[in-house]
Every structure is written in structure tokens, then in C-alpha cells.
Specification:
Alpha-Beta Plaits, 40% helix, 18 strands, 471 residues, flat, four-stranded antiparallel β-sheet, 20% strand, 13 helices
Length: 471
């Protein structure tokens, strides 16, 4: 019976640990999805603009964590696009809604959210946004530093009763970070506040108001700490004993039924004196061949002949070993999850850390690294008058000789805003592998098509993923 109780306890502990690991995996995925929601991609940036101009244009929507502009080491200029990462997802969503197509430095910039090549995070993001719809919360940014929560509440309560109004506090006392959240009793009140107060001049600053896309305290949730079990030790032992008893009774009943069915045939076994059939014996193993690992949350039981002091010392040593093993297990789990998923910070994606004596070698390696792209751009292949319904199919058939073609995009680019301006046709071909794209580039570059010499080269993968064909 004691061995059965131990086995039940082990199964319960394993099931609890699996639930804990699944919960932590979901929590890490949720945090990574929130980090992804904080980013926006800004394309079609004039080469004359610097990072300060981008920061100044996007700062009214909320505090910016980082701006990463990809630089070309040959031209010493940026490549015409940047990644802006905010502290909160609402700021990124508001900038996406209000900055896309805005004229900046003589060009209409393009602002988009998550790249199309990250479908694994979409389900988690949809779950977060659906959860946010349960609350009538709005996001308010670009708040004057001298205004208080009471000032903001007095202005916004004209649209309906307010449950709470909270401004995000800064590091300095009695100073906020310029943004906050307001929750109304009704959805109608929140919608009216957004439509009426967005771009409202309050204290010399234009407010930026939008709907909250995350539930309350979404960014403040922590990864659950390792826990053994919420069930007391005595209760766990009692539950395991009851389960083992039921399992033993089931086994006895099953074996008895089998023996009785055999005894029903005459002459098989002699009947003992008195006509009493003894119950079948149950073989309980006295020892387990392989040592059973001690798992977190497994209660320890005192054996016969053990001294209380020695047992207490042994239990303390086991507890410390359990905590160390648990911490190491959680660390390995989170490390594995972080390696499999997208890096959370843009700096981790874009920058290369250079230390030690190999710094010069790493710098040269960074400058000379191969451009990893599966996209080939074909220039000067056709004119606007040559674009018809069959062109895309012809290009796909031709490029299919060099690999598997996943997508063909024909883009007509006007050189200016004038109606009579020249139109250049760019053709983008997305292959399934980078080697296929390189093979197609080498084969098509310099070839003649309908009297035109085609110029083929690899196109920036990030630009293509964000549907930016201006490069």
C-alpha cells in the first residue's frame, strides 16, 4: 500500500508540474506578444532625416523605448526604414492609426504594425485584444506635465461616469509620464470621448486619444513563481492513500472475478475445508529497481525506526535540493522558450555585441555579412504599357525555373505626385529559399526581355515583409 501511495503522489506531482510548465509557457508567449505589439515599422523615410526627427514625430503618442534605423556601411546613410518601439502597445497602435501616410521630410512615410512573417504570435495577440474589449478603457497621451489626474478626470467625465482615471507616474515625485488610462461605465461614453477629445488642445498640447488594446495590468503581470502545491501535505497524503486504496480494491475485485470464473469449472482446483475460497493474494514489490527521483511537491513520510531530528535534517536537505532543482528547471524552460521565439527587444535583433581582442574581426564580419533575403527585384523588365493579366503568370513560370516561387508582386511606382509623372514598374519575386533567390538573380541579371536589359538584385527582406516596395 505504501508503494501505491508513493506512485499516486508521483503522478499527482508530475501532473502539477506539467500544468505549471504550460502556465509559464503561456505567460512567456503573452509577454512576447505584448512586446511585439509595442513596435511599429516606419518605411519610406527620406534619407535626409535623422533619428531625432523620427523621435520628435512619434513621441506624442507615448514614451519611446528605442528607435533602430538600419544603416548602410557603404553609403553611410540609413536604408530608408526604422523600427520604433514604445513602452506600451496603445502608443504603437495610436501612432499606426495616425501617422501612416503623413508627410515627413518631403515624403509620405509608411507606418505598419507587426510583420506578416510572424503568424505564431497572432493568436496570442488576438486573445489579448479580445480580453481588452471587456473593458471600456481609453488611452490618453501627450498630456501636459502640469496637469493632474483630477484635471484630466474633470475634462473627460463630461462624456459619462468614470470608473477610474490613472496617469502613469514618472520617476520624479508628483510627475507623470504624459499618458494614462480612463475607464468609463459604458462603451458609448468611451467612444464619444475618443471621437471628441482626440487632437484636442489642452494646455497647449494636442491630446492623442484612442482605445485601449490591452486589459488592465497586462504589462505588469509576472511569470508565476515556482510553487510546489496549494494542497497541504497531510491532505495530499490522505488523498493519495484513498486513491491507492480504491485502485487496490479494484485490482482485488478484478483478480477475484477471474479466479472465481476459473473455479466455476469442476475439477480445476481442490476446495479447501469448509468450502471457503481464500481471497487471491496481491504481490506488492518490496523495492523499486530504479531509484525514483525526488520531485518538487512530493511529501516525505517518516519511516519506522527513524529519529525525528534526523528526519528533520533530511527533510531540510531534500527541500533545499528541491528548490535548487526547481529553479534550474524553470531557468532552462524560460531560456528554451526565449531562444525559440522572437527576441523581445529591437536592440537584441539589430545590434551585435563586440568585446575583447576579436572586436576588429567582428566589425569586419558585420560589415561583410551576406544579405539574407528570399526576394529578387527585377527592374527595367517591362514598362507600364506592358502590364496585363498574363504578365504575373509569365514571370512566375520563368522564375520557376530557378526555384519554388511563393509570390509575385508587380508594383507601379510614380516618381512624383504629379499626374503626368513617370511610372516605373518594379517586379518582386519571393522564393522559398535564399539560395533559389540568389540563383535567379545571377541568371536574370543582364538578360534582355522585350528589348530591355533586366537588372536583378536581392531586395531587403524586412521591407518586403512590411509591404514596402519603395526601396
Amino acid at each position: 500500500m505504501e508503494q501505491s501511495i508513493k506512485m499516486v503522489l508521483m503522478k499527482q506531482t508530475l501532473a502539477h508540474q506539467q500544468q505549471l510548465m504550460a502556465s509559464q509557457r503561456n505567460q512567456v508567449q503573452r509577454l512576447q506578444a505584448l512586446a511585439l505589439m509595442c513596435r511599429v515599422y516606419v518605411g519610406s523615410i527620406s534619407f535626409e532625416l535623422k533619428e531625432d526627427t523620427i523621435r520628435q514625430a512619434f513621441l506624442p503618442f507615448g514614451p519611446i523605448k528605442s528607435i533602430n534605423m538600419s544603416w548602410d556601411p557603404i553609403t553611410q546613410k540609413h536604408k530608408g526604414f526604422a523600427f520604433v518601439e514604445y513602452d506600451i502597445p496603445e502608443a504603437a497602435q495610436l501612432s499606426l492609426e495616425q501617422m501612416n501616410g503623413v508627410m515627413l521630410g518631403g515624403r509620405n512615410i509608411k507606418v505598419v504594425g507587426r510583420p506578416s512573417n510572424m503568424p505564431q504570435a497572432q493568436s496570442v495577440i488576438d486573445e489579448i485584444t479580445e480580453e481588452a474589449k471587456l473593458y471600456n478603457r481609453i488611452y490618453v497621451a501627450s498630456i501636459h506635465p502640469d496637469l493632474t489626474e483630477e484635471d484630466i478626470k474633470s475634462v473627460f467625465e463630461a462624456f459619462g461616469p468614470i470608473k477610474y482615471c490613472k496617469l502613469q507616474q514618472g520617476s520624479a515625485p508628483h510627475r507623470h509620464k504624459g499618458y494614462g488610462f480612463i475607464e468609463y461605465d459604458t462603451k458609448q461614453a468611451s467612444n464619444e470621448a475618443i471621437s471628441s477629445m482626440n487632437l484636442f488642445d489642452l494646455g497647449g498640447q494636442y491630446l492623442r486619444v484612442g482605445r485601449a488594446i490591452t486589459p488592465p495590468n497586462a504589462l505588469h503581470s509576472k511569470t508565476p513563481a515556482p510553487a510546489t502545491s496549494h494542497m497541504p501535505t497531510a491532505a495530499a497524503v490522505a488523498a493519495a492513500a484513498a486513491t491507492a486504496k480504491i485502485q487496490a480494491m479494484d485490482a482485488v475485485a478484478t483478480n477475484a472475478a477471474g479466479v472465481l470464473s476459473k473455479l466455476g469449472a469442476p475439477g480445476l482446483l481442490p476446495t479447501p475445508a469448509g468450502g471457503i475460497i481464500p481471497p487471491p493474494g496481491i504481490a506488492i514489490p518490496q523495492q523499486i529497481r530504479a531509484p525514483v527521483p525526488i520531485l518538487p511537491g512530493l511529501p516525505t513520510m517518516m519511516g519506522a525506526g527513524q529519529q525525528p531530528g534526523a528526519v528533520a535534517q533530511a527533510q531540510e536537505a531534500i527541500r533545499r535540493a528541491q528548490e535548487a532543482a526547481q529553479a534550474k528547471q524553470q531557468e532552462e524552460l524560460q531560456k528554451k522558450l526565449m531562444e525559440e521565439a522572437e527576441p523581445i527587444t529591437l536592440q537584441a535583433q539589430e545590434n551585435m555585441s563586440i568585446k575583447g581582442q576579436s572586436a576588429r574581426h567582428l566589425v569586419m564580419q558585420k560589415l561583410m555579412r551576406k544579405v539574407e533575403s528570399r526576394v529578387v527585384i527585377l527592374r527595367n523588365m517591362v514598362g507600364p504599357e506592358d502590364v496585363d493579366e498574363t504578365l504575373q503568370e509569365e514571370i512566375q513560370d520563368e522564375c520557376g525555373k530557378y526555384g519554388q516561387v511563393e509570390k509575385v508582386v508587380i508594383y507601379n511606382e510614380k516618381q512624383s505626385d504629379d499626374e503626368a509623372s513617370e511610372v516605373i514598374v518594379k517586379i518582386f519575386v519571393l522564393f522559398s529559399k535564399m539560395q533559389e533567390a540568389e540563383y535567379a538573380r545571377d541568371a536574370l541579371n543582364g538578360r534582355f526581355f522585350a528589348g530591355r536589359m533586366v537588372r536583378a538584385e536581392l531586395y531587403d527582406q524586412a521591407l518586403f515583409d512590411h509591404n514596402d516596395f519603395s526601396g
